[in-house]
Every structure is written in structure tokens, then in C-alpha cells.
Amino acid sequence: MDTQVSLDWWPSPAKLNLFLHITGRNDKGYHLLQSLFQMLDVGDSLAFIPNDSGDIRLATAISGVNTEDNLIYRAARLLQSHVNTPQGCDIYIEKQLPMGGGIGGGSSNAATTLVALNYYWQCGLSTETLAQLGLELGADVPIFVHGKTAFAEGVGEQIHPVSLDESWYLVVFPGVNISTAEVFSHPDLPRNTTPIDWQHYTFDATQNDCQKIVCKSQPEVAKLLQWLLHYAPSRMTGTGACVFATFSDPDQAKAVQQALPENWHGFVAKGVNTSPLQLKLQEMS
Ligand SMILES: C[C@](O)(CO)[C@H](O)COP(=O)(O)OP(=O)(O)OC[C@H]1O[C@@H](n2ccc(N)nc2=O)[C@H](O)[C@@H]1O
Ligand SMILES: Nc1ncnc2c1ncn2[C@@H]1O[C@H](COP(=O)(O)OP(=O)(O)OP(=O)(O)O)[C@@H](O)[C@H]1O
Q1: Structure pTM?
Q2: Do 94 and 45 meet the contact criterion of CB atoms below 8 Å apart?
Q3: Which residues are the active-site ones (predicted)?
Q4: Nearest to 91 by CA among 64, 65, 110
Q5: Going by C-beta distance under 8 Å and a sequence separation of 6 or more, which residues neighbour residue 227?
Q6: pLDDT grade, residue 155 (50/70/90)?
Q7: Calpha distance 12→3 (Å, rounded)
Q8: In sequence order, what DSSP letters do the residues of 260-279 get, joined into one string?
Q9: What lines the ligand 2 site, CB under 6 Å?
Q10: Distance (Å, rounded) from C-alpha 62 to C-alpha 64?
């Protein structure tokens, strides 16, 4: 089979945390957050060929990630056992997003897998049920299943969709990977930011509570942030390492991208209120 022409690609978009406040911890030690998740129109792509054998096979390997640990494989297995289907799948991956960048690559891949296989295997699960299932794989999976730009609270499972004005983002990876678990276990991480009323959100009155300790332990992130701040309002996303700069005009974002020093790689993306994954699902239904 010529897979190049016959594969039907499903988008697996990136997100930005426009702000990230840590307001406490739950009884499992997980951090309670408030965050504004901005969906982007850029990301990875996945394609699925269902089979009757029940095997889940990753046709494309991700360097440094074992199949059993890959969130795509784990999402497929989780759904398969939840609905007890005899069906399996071959899964193709076009990876674009840097791993450990704070832009949600792995979580988004898991969400796309749940949504697409729910469609192909005709499981009939609701978006809410898929989101609850996704939470078993990672805190950010539910938000990607819903596929809406949204305020999120709790560990990311309480979601309030919002409609933001059109913005463009230059997202830059400083070339260092950051472990989410390490940031959350740092003794100096602020953990008691006063909760805000998300309906009165402004960029200037918010922050990323992880940014200070990451900038201290990874000077390259601090350097990148200082560089971008000369051009536009900028902030780290998630637990790093990517930093984004915000523009109302895509040409300005592209001009700054052109000016990036050689060791930093960035992409320009549009902020969207509905994710490309949700648009694909609507197109298929
Ligand atoms: C900070 C965010 O990037 C915001 O988008 C996410 O909430 C992180 O989500 P994620 O990468 O899906 O993280 P997970 O894979 O669920 O968790 C990785 C590790 O980070 C810690 N963790 C994660 C999320 C959270 N709300 N509190 C935590 O303490 C836990 O030790 C966990 O074992
Ligand atoms: N399909 C996948 N794509 C990317 N990473 C994966 C995948 N499956 C498992 N992982 C593991 O998850 C780790 C975190 O990757 P990911 O790209 O989700 O980080 P992130 O962008 O920091 O996410 P977040 O913003 O949710 O914290 C990787 O280092 C990798 O070991």
C-alpha cells in the first residue's frame, strides 16, 4: 500500500499556557492550577488504519520513547480495554513539536488518539467520557480532547471554554528539555497564588509561577525570554522550556522569527478558539 497518498491525517495541535498559577495541592500531591490554555493551529499529525487483529502497532517510532511508554500507544490500549473491542490499529506519526517543551505534544497525541479511535472503532463514547479517560494518561489530555481554548482549574480537568481575540504567537524552543515532574517537585516553587476570577483575566495581571525557578536552573530559558521581551509581551509556557511572544500581526511574528539567533528554533502559530482536531472530527461526522 502506498501510505503517502492514502493516509488520512488527524491534527494533534500544540497549546500555550498564557498564564499558569499554582493555587495549592490535592490529596494525591498533584498541584492545583489555574491556567488559560490557548489552542494553536500548528502541531503533529497522526493517521490510523484500523485492523481486526486487535494489535496496536506504531508504524513510526519516536526517538527516545519506548512503544509501551508512548502516550499514543497507551491511549489506544486504554480505550481498547475500556470498551472491550476486538479491533486494533496501525498508527502513523508525523512529529513536529519538540518534546518536553511545555506545548503539550505528548498529551495532545494521546487526545487525538482517543478521539480518532473512538470514531474508527465506533465506540460511541461522549467527549466528556473520553476526557475523563484521558485524565488517566496526563493532566493536559482532557483539555485537548475538548479542543477548545479554555480556562482550566483543578489539575486541568475543570474546563471553561472562552473566545479570545485573534493573536499570533512566535513559539521558541531554547534547546533544553525540562522535566515537568522535576519542576513540580522543586522546593522553591510558589504554591499558594491567590485564585483569580478568570472572567477578568488580563495578561499583565497574571504570570507563570514556574518561570522563575526554570529561568534560574536553565539560564538559556532566561536569555531567550529577555531577548523576546525586546519585541513583544512574552512568557514561558507550562513548565518550559518553550517561550512565546504575542503579536496581533503575523508578519511581525515572522519578522522576529527571522531575527532569531541560530541556536534557537521557533515557529509562528495562530491562536484558535476551536482546535484543528475538533474541526477534523466535525468534518468526519
Ligand atoms: C503544567 C502543565 O504543563 C500545564 O499545561 C501540565 O499541567 C502538566 O501536565 P502533564 O505534562 O500532562 O503532566 P503529567 O504527565 O500529568 O505529570 C507529570 C508529573 O508532574 C507533576 N504534576 C503534574 C501536573 C500537576 N497539576 N501537578 C503535578 O504535581 C506530578 O508529579 C506528575 O507525576
Ligand atoms: N507521543 C509522545 N510524544 C511526545 N512525548 C511523549 C510521547 N509519549 C510519551 N512521551 C514522553 O512525554 C514526555 C513529555 O513530552 P511532552 O511533549 O508532552 O512534554 P511537554 O510539551 O512538556 O508537555 P506538557 O506541556 O503537557 O508538560 C517526553 O519527554 C516523552 O518522554
Answers
A1: 0.95
A2: yes
A3: 15, 140
A4: 110
A5: 261, 264
A6: confident
A7: 19
A8: S-TT-EEEEEEEESB-HHHH
A9: 62, 65, 69-72, 99-107, 109, 140, 180, 238-239
A10: 6
Strand partners of residue 17: 37
Task: Compute the distance from residue 147 Cα to the ligand 1 centre, in Å.
Answer: 18
ipTM of the prediction: 0.94
- Ligand 2, residue 97: give the atom nearest the CA: 17
CA atoms within 13 A on the CB side of 3: 12
Residue 55 DSSP label = -
Q: Which atom from ligand 2 is nearest to the alpha carbon of 70?
A: 8
| Structural domains present in the chain | 6-285 (3.30.230.10)
Whether 140 is a known active-site residue: answer yes
pLDDT, residue 4, reads: 55
Collapse the DSSP code of 98 into the 3-class scheme (helix H, G, I; strand E, B; otherwise coil) and give the result: coil
